[in-house]
Amino acid sequence: MRRPAVRLMLGLVLGLAACAARPAAAAELMQLKEGPGRNLTIGRCIICHSLEYLPANAPAMDRAVWKKTIQKMKERFGAPITDEEAREILDYLDASYSGKS
Predict the structure, then answer these.
(1) Number of domains, the chain
(2) What CATH code is carried by the domain that includes residue 55?
(3) Cystine design at 50: which of 26, 64, 71, 100 (Cβ 3.0–4.6 Å)?
């Protein structure tokens, strides 16, 4: 009975280690558009995923969808983003990476 729990724990540890190792490499590969909020967006988003996520998803995103996505990152995934930072990130993503009209 303990074996599945050990596997789950090992998977979580390995996943977190991979997430922690990814930021430096991802920052070297991708540069986001210049604009107010860019550095904050990079600093918060790269903690868990590559920056390629932002422009790759931009064609399907508008302000409302970016807002829901940021909220999901905070609430479901525990992203360390304050409400003020979330607004700044939302303004940046809306201005730089919103594809929907």
Answers:
(1) 1
(2) 1.10.760.10
(3) 26
